[in-house]
Amino acid sequence: MATAAKTLGILPRPTAATGFWSWVATVDHKRIGILYGVTAFFFFLVGGIEAWLMRLQLARPGLELVTAKTFNALFTMHATTMIFLGVMPLLAAFMNYLLPLLIGARDVAFPRLNAFSYWIYLFGGIFINVGWLMGTAAGHVPDSGWFGYANLTSVEFSGGLGPDFWTLGLLLLGIGTLVSGFNFIVTILNMRAPGMSLMKMPIFVWTILVTSAIIIFAFPSVTVALIMLMFDRAFAANFFEVAAGGSVVFYQHLFWTFGHPEVYILILPAMGIVSEVLPVHARKMLFGYSVMVFSTALIGFMGFTVWSHHMFTVGMGPVVNSIFSLTTMAIAVPTGVKIFNWLSTMWGGQIRFTTAMLFAIGFIACFTIGGLSGFMHASAPSDAQQHDTYFVVAHIHYVLIGGSIFAIFSGIYHWFPKVFGRLLDERLGQWNFWLVFAGFHTFAFPFHFLGLLGMPRRIYTYAPGLGWEFWNLLSTIGVFVLAAGILVFIANVVVTMRKPMDAPADPWDGRTLEWTLPSPPPVYNFAVVPRVHLRDAFWFHKHPEGKEQALEYGEPHPGPIHLPGQSLMPVLLALGPTVAATGVLFVRMRESFAVPVIVAGFVIALLALWGWAFEGEGGTLIEPGEGS
Amino acid sequence: MAHHAHETNTGIDNRKLGFWLFIASESIFFACLLVGYLVYKDGYQPGAGPRDLFNIELTTVSTFVLLMSSLAMVLGVNAAQRNLGRKARRWVLVTALMGLAFLGFQAYEFTHFYHAGLSLSSSVFGTAFYTLTGFHGAHVAVGVIWLLTLLYHGRGAGLTADKADDVEVAGLYWHFVDIVWIVLFTVLYLLEFVQ
Ligand code: HEM
Ligand SMILES: [Cu+2]
């Protein structure tokens, strides 16, 4: 039986094993992964509904379903939601759940900080969306674009609270992301199973490592930009007040030195997922592992050298534009290398066209198209034509949906049995894939033509007779097909979750350590941490092919395993900054109680930190073999 | 009971490694603020500019105090590692007091500048100056609170060897904040007067 470990500190730790509080207080990376996944999927649907409304509005010329102001709010919140509340946290769900399992660890390095990351993400996500409850007309919903360009976001042009919700919410989200970044890097560098050298890690772990490094170096610049915006708006500072000598171009530099690396935060883990799925379902080793590792690291580094390609039309001059054109084009080299490695992995493999595999292949196809359009506007002169047209929108959607979302679905079908102990229905899966695939291309490919025909981004309606009607209508039809595909996915999950938990430990004949565990894995992950001698050790353990002794099981853990105690301090610590951010909103509204609210936020955070430091170690001792 | 480092692949304790990464990230944060200051420092008209306002002697004294606080911190960490609990506690207390003194200097400087007409909204120079040095000051304040918590933690037998890791991590933070100030002092104050 699991026994509570002796409480050593001043505060007792919560111990609920099931029910609501067990989830609020959990510090188990697997539960946190599930929380991330469910929350992010919810926000993904919210972002999807916003997209659908925009597409309805643009289906025919001259429609008036929503006002121009609401349309601005829709495209701003759609992009913000998709990037920060949907795709990033969906990827974080995979990282949280899988990272320790992939490297043979019992948990992440800082379990309580991990829980904190989730809670501040949830609060930040709610915070950004509060404006919807206050109505769009007064400008309380963010409506200055997902990049929040200064001047559009100044009090003069955006008097409502929209930009305040946006800046403060993103600051909250940024804290959580940064903390995850530190946590994952330490976990990877310090907690690998014995024998697993860096070059024996699964490739997904490598992409998590590089992504986390990008996070900790890219997020500070957007943090500074957001703080400056907040100071301008709430405290009448002058950073971006042109009349007082402020520079709006400085904002753009700060934003894009983050913004471009951010797109690699969105795509590298997706590439990692695909690089795990392809070899398993093609029953072949990943082609060119070390080249993959180096191209991942190189992309991570080069991501920081190209930000000004988002500013070609700002007027930085031919020299600067040429330099950034060249650095941007150079990124296509490691990216192309990856694409060829994936193709070579499939070449001559015994491919099983499972849903996971279909999504992985779909990823390669779409991402390649998106990379090509990226390469096209890497050239400053052609970008001058394409900039702020639907051509850029096409690029974004091919890399973000075609890239990130396809990879995420691939990963969901691949790992669902591990997480929930049930295999998703393959027949519904095929419907899911083909509807999403067809819907996506019908919806996003026409954007290329619209862009070339000169349709600008971010217009809420257009006149007839410009040659845009057909493509716009087609695109809207595509959204309905895509949405049908997503509904089939939801149905699949609902149907599957009602079935008994009967998934085998290793349904796909996997290669990595998580498949050595039962589905779902026990709370402590590994009763016996294996010693790893090779890359893909589990595969060679099953299919030695002359490589016996790939995986070795040592002595079982002596005595019961200690699991970290639950804690309510992470939620409390996340609450502090959220309250303080609310206080800053009140400053903007010139409310007299603003300062007390800010102070209250800090006090809550301090109390939480105090509890964090002094609550007992707690936790449970569990005999291996239990709790599975 | 101190939670002793589990065996790690790198041999570096998790908390220390995490903290080094945090410092790397914070360095970029301050670098961006500093770039902001450099972009905006000449935008003070019609008000007073850095040369009219800065009192280099005074700030040299406060910088010296902060520098010496790092020395006190080193002595504190060293004493903790040698299990001289009470001595460690004394040095940490000295560090915290010097930190407070630095904050006192900064508060004086801010009020003085404010009365001379420089505010967050008076000019871009004012905006950039107060934001940059203000964030540094906030970091010092957090450090002081941290050190005070350590002192509370070490009540009784003092900051003995089993708490040496805690003292060391706080020390890393303190040195970082100190180094940031040296960069700021050099760029904001010293270089301003080099001609
Ligand atoms: C071969 C690699 C890539 C190249 C050469 C490239 C190039 C570019 C360029 C030059 C722009 C600016 C276009 C303009 O605004 O006029 C752009 C925009 C954008 N790219 Fe990429 N890109 C690449 C990959 C990616 C990836 C992997 C993602 C995300 C997963 C991404 C997401 C975006 C987004 C979101 C924008 C629009 C930003 C905005 O709102 O203005 N790109 N890309
Ligand atoms: Cu870019």
TrEMBL record, chain A:
Q: Where in the cell?
A: Cell membrane; Membrane
Q: Which UniProt keywords apply?
A: Cell membrane, Copper, Electron transport, Heme, Iron, Membrane, Metal-binding, Respiratory chain, Translocase, Transmembrane, Transmembrane helix, Transport
Function in brief: Cytochrome c oxidase is the component of the respiratory chain that catalyzes the reduction of oxygen to water. Subunits 1-3 form the functional core of the enzyme complex. CO I is the catalytic subunit of the enzyme. Electrons originating in cytochrome c are transferred via the copper A center of subunit 2 and heme A of subunit 1 to the bimetallic center formed by heme A3 and copper B.
Q: What is this protein called?
A: Cytochrome c oxidase subunit 1
Please report the organism this UniProt entry assigns to the protein.
Symbiobacterium terraclitae
| Ranges that cross the membrane | 34-54, 74-103, 115-134, 165-191, 203-231, 251-274, 286-307, 319-343, 355-376, 396-416, 428-450, 470-495, 593-614
Which is an annotated Pfam family here?
A: COX1
Q: What pathway annotation does it carry?
A: Energy metabolism; oxidative phosphorylation
Q: Which top EC class is named for this enzyme in its record? A: translocase
Q: Give every Cytochrome oxidase subunit I profile domain span.
A: 15-533
Q: Which PROSITE patterns match?
A: COX1, COX1_CUB
- What Enzyme Commission number(s) does the record list for this chain? 7.1.1.9
Q: What is its main location?
A: membrane
Highest taxon listed in the record's lineage: Bacteria
Query: What is catalyzed by this enzyme?
Result: 4 Fe(II)-[cytochrome c] + O2 + 8 H(+)(in) = 4 Fe(III)-[cytochrome c] + 2 H2O + 4 H(+)(out)
From TrEMBL, chain B:
InterPro entries assigned to the protein according to its UniProt record, in alphabetical order: Cyt_c/ubiquinol_Oxase_su3, Cyt_c_oxidase-like_su3, Cyt_c_oxidase_su3-like_sf, Cyt_c_oxidase_su3_a-hlx, Ubiquinol_oxase_su3_dom
**Keyword flag Magnesium:** no
Q: Which UniProt keywords apply?
A: Cell membrane, Membrane, Oxidoreductase, Transmembrane, Transmembrane helix
Q: Which residues form the Heme-copper oxidase subunit III family profile domain?
A: 1-193
What sections of the protein cross the membrane? 19-40, 60-79, 91-108, 128-152, 172-191
Q: Where in the cell is it found?
A: Cell membrane
How is it placed in the membrane, per its record?
Multi-pass membrane protein
Query: Cross-referenced Pfam families, in alphabetical order?
Result: COX3
Q: What family does this belong to?
A: Belongs to the cytochrome c oxidase subunit 3 family.
User: What is the protein name for this chain?
Assistant: Heme/copper-type cytochrome/quinol oxidase subunit 3
Q: Which organism is it from?
A: Symbiobacterium terraclitae
